[in-house]
Amino acid sequence: MAKETQNVKSYSSRGLELTERVVSINRVSKVVKGGKRFRFSVLVVVGDGVSQVGLGMGKAKEISVAMKKGIEHAKKNLIDLKKTGQTLPHPIIGKFGAAEVLMRPAAPGTGVLAGSSVRPIMELGGIKDVIAKVTGRTSNPINIAYATMDAVKRLRTPEEIYRLRGKERKEA
What we know:
Pfam families: Ribosomal_S5, Ribosomal_S5_C. Keywords: Ribonucleoprotein, Ribosomal protein, RNA-binding, rRNA-binding. By secondary structure, this protein is of the alpha+beta class. The protein is 24% helix and 38% strand. It has 2 domains: 2-79, Double Stranded RNA Binding Domain; 81-162, Ribosomal Protein S5, domain 2. It has 4 helices and 10 strands, in the order βββββαββββαβαα.
């Protein structure tokens, strides 16, 4: 399994300037009567660097076609990443399969302290300061990326939590 990071600029249908980053390229084979047939699966993260981030998987016989499919899939799955300043609003654990990712807010200037699959999601989502740790029983980059997206989807800002509880925020 080859890992690669690559940035490419393009424009989404929403009018955002998006950056794509390849998280992993995996060559898979299928044994048939005539021999082996090789295909590629590519995991791509797309984001605007401010608050929009998406994750997509593309599969094809050629890497370039698989990347295009992954980018299109990621653009369709863009979500708004909730943040407080340049960090996360609260600690959270994301789960997907055997993968678990613990993410905690960090002080300004800390940077993105995260593994290879979590880092592009945080950077392209506009998070500048975060501490992340993969705590699950897997090192599969695909499952780790999906666990990170699970955590990002479940983030809530303090204003949302107050509104859901039916309370008003008191300023100190």
